[in-house]
């Protein structure tokens, strides 16, 4: 029989109140800014409708299997990434895997610093939408009047228009994290996810009624099957799935550790994965229907428009559209309100990775951890990203951390856990023993074979490109300091945190079901 599992701090472990609460929190983590501003443009640039083929293949062969891996590690070993991975490694490789866990925590910490700023921008533009404050020059307003963008470098010139909403977002985050898993994170997702779905559906319906919507949808979904012969298209598909599911940097390990011992894992995992992909397709419909309207108004083809992804899409192209369309203020409120809600629920999961790890290592409670982690993060976030150089720093750090840091973390996790330590059978047995949908040997093959192979190709390709071509138009010296430097600080932080002593030993957990019981349970479920 399962027994209650204390946290590494010695207190009863927090838990989601049930399966629905966990699913909503996991979907809230996965559905973020990238679903709205990244997927539509990536799909359009990589074969349109034909892109859905490699996208679905990537989802089934890498996204869901690695998601299950995170679930199995967190749920079986009952901890945040450093705790769970250390317990998995045992006497043989516990310290090494704990270091990997802290590497994931450090990645989450850095992402939290700049992700919060984008939410602050969206919050500002939510307010700006009521009177179309950007006027007829959204690009000039965004980079000039609002952000006051300067040349690459390090500036301490704080922009008040960014500082105020950024501080508000940090206060909200600290409060929610301090309330704990059930009363804070779960409750926030229960409130925000339905609001996000209703608001975004209203936005999509309005977009579909615009003149030119059909042209936009044709541009997005018209398949270019010749693109399927391009390896870059397949890499783009795996990259999109990988980044959109919140896998391989501690989030799903941490969230699954808050599930009760007898908790279904695989069925909720499928719900989360397909809900995330469904929202991405919905976002593609809404975004490109709107872009079709804009293209007709400008008298150009959709492909001739600029700013089809990322910051440019959200804060330049969409404001320009809002300024021209009937009922623009309402559309703007819906769009930027959706960005705020999607970003906020994802941000909570990112920072919970850091908070949970510190709670377990240093024996502190949720409130103290939230106040400490949140306070330090807020100060650094304001100093680094609310200044006149904040946009460039954000763009650079995000590119390096996502394309190098997270991918490297995934490769290390799959290789060490599945290939080196040979724990695939145990984790597969755990998934099957506690879930309604059994996991076959195909899972071990995908997680230990195909996934690290594809991810290694992605990583090597990106490293070569960054070393030879740089990134954007930024000077190589700047990229070395801010881009590669941020990765260096993540590695150093992981090493330092691993070397510190635990307040209470994390090594006294007896995993349930016991290893000897797993094969029998697994076979019984087939």
Automatic annotation (TrEMBL):
<feature type="transmembrane region" description="Helical">
    <location>
        <begin position="102"/>
        <end position="128"/>
    </location>
</feature>
<feature type="transmembrane region" description="Helical">
    <location>
        <begin position="191"/>
        <end position="213"/>
    </location>
</feature>
<feature type="transmembrane region" description="Helical">
    <location>
        <begin position="400"/>
        <end position="421"/>
    </location>
</feature>
<feature type="transmembrane region" description="Helical">
    <location>
        <begin position="20"/>
        <end position="37"/>
    </location>
</feature>
<feature type="transmembrane region" description="Helical">
    <location>
        <begin position="370"/>
        <end position="394"/>
    </location>
</feature>
<protein>
    <submittedName>
        <fullName>Sodium-dependent transporter</fullName>
    </submittedName>
</protein>
<feature type="transmembrane region" description="Helical">
    <location>
        <begin position="270"/>
        <end position="296"/>
    </location>
</feature>
<feature type="transmembrane region" description="Helical">
    <location>
        <begin position="442"/>
        <end position="464"/>
    </location>
</feature>
<feature type="transmembrane region" description="Helical">
    <location>
        <begin position="233"/>
        <end position="258"/>
    </location>
</feature>
<keyword id="KW-1133">Transmembrane helix</keyword>
<dbReference type="GO" id="GO:0016020">
    <property type="term" value="C:membrane"/>
</dbReference>
<feature type="transmembrane region" description="Helical">
    <location>
        <begin position="476"/>
        <end position="497"/>
    </location>
</feature>
<keyword id="KW-0472">Membrane</keyword>
<dbReference type="InterPro" id="IPR037272">
    <property type="entry name" value="SNS_sf"/>
</dbReference>
<keyword id="KW-0813">Transport</keyword>
<dbReference type="Pfam" id="PF00209">
    <property type="entry name" value="SNF"/>
</dbReference>
<feature type="transmembrane region" description="Helical">
    <location>
        <begin position="158"/>
        <end position="179"/>
    </location>
</feature>
<dbReference type="InterPro" id="IPR000175">
    <property type="entry name" value="Na/ntran_symport"/>
</dbReference>
<feature type="transmembrane region" description="Helical">
    <location>
        <begin position="330"/>
        <end position="358"/>
    </location>
</feature>
<keyword id="KW-0812">Transmembrane</keyword>
<feature type="transmembrane region" description="Helical">
    <location>
        <begin position="49"/>
        <end position="69"/>
    </location>
</feature>
């Amino acid at each position: 029989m399962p027994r209650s599992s204390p946290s590494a701090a010695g207190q009863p472990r927090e838990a989601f109140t049930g399966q629905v609460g966990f699913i909503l929190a996991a979907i809230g983590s996965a559905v973020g800014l990238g679903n709205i501003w990244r997927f539509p443009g990536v799909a359009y640039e990589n074969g349109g409708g034909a892109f859905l083929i490699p996208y679905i293949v990537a989802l089934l062969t890498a996204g869901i299997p690695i998601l299950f891996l995170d679930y199995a590690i967190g749920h079986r070993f009952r901890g945040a990434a450093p705790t769970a991975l250390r317990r998995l490694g045992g006497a043989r490789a516990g310290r090494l895997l704990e270091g990997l866990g802290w590497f994931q925590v450090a990645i989450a910490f850095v992402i939290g610093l700049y992700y919060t700023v984008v939410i602050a921008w969206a919050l500002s533009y939510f307010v700006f939408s009521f009177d179309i404050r950007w006027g007829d020059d959204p690009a000039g307003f965004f980079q000039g009047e609002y952000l006051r963008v300067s040349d690459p470098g390090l500036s301490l010139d704080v922009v008040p228009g960014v500082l105020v909403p950024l501080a508000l977002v940090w206060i909200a985050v600290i409060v929610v994290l301090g309330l704990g898993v059930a009363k804070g994170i779960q409750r926030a997702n229960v409130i925000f996810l339905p609001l996000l779905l209703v608001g975004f559906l209203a936005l999509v319906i309005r977009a579909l009624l615009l003149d030119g919507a059909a042209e936009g949808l044709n541009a997005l979904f018209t398949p270019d099957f010749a693109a399927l012969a391009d390896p870059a298209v397949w890499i783009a598909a795996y990259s999109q799935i990988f980044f959109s599911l919140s896998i391989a940097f501690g989030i799903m390990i941490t969230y699954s550790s808050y599930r009760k011992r007898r908790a279904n894992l695989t069925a909720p995992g499928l719900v989360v994965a397909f809900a995330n992909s469904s929202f991405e397709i919905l976002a593609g419909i809404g975004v490109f229907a709107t872009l079709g309207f804009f293209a007709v108004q400008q008298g150009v083809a959709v492909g001739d428009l600029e700013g089809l992804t990322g910051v440019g899409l959200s804060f330049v192209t969409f404001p320009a559209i809002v300024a021209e369309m009937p009922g623009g203020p309402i559309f703007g409120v819906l769009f930027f309100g959706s960005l705020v809600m999607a970003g906020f629920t994802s941000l909570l999961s990112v920072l919970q990775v850091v908070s949970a790890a510190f709670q377990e290592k240093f024996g502190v409670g949720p409130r103290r951890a939230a106040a400490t982690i949140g306070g330090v993060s807020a100060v650094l976030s304001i100093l680094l990203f609310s200044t006149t150089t904040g946009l460039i720093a954000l763009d650079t750090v995000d590119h390096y951390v996502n394309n190098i840091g997270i991918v490297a973390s995934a490769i290390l996790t799959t290789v060490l856990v599945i290939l080196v330590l040979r724990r695939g059978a145990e984790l597969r047995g755990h998934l099957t023993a506690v879930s309604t949908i059994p996991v076959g040997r195909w899972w071990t093959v995908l997680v230990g074979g195909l996934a690290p192979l594809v991810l290694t190709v992605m990583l090597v390709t990106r490293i070569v490109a960054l070393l030879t071509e740089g990134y954007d138009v930024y000077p190589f010296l700047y990229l070395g300091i801010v881009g590669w430097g941020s990765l260096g600080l993540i590695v150093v932080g992981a090493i330092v945190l691993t070397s510190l002593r635990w307040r209470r030993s994390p090594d006294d957990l007896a995993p349930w079901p016991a290893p000897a019981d797993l094969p029998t349970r697994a076979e019984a479920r087939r």
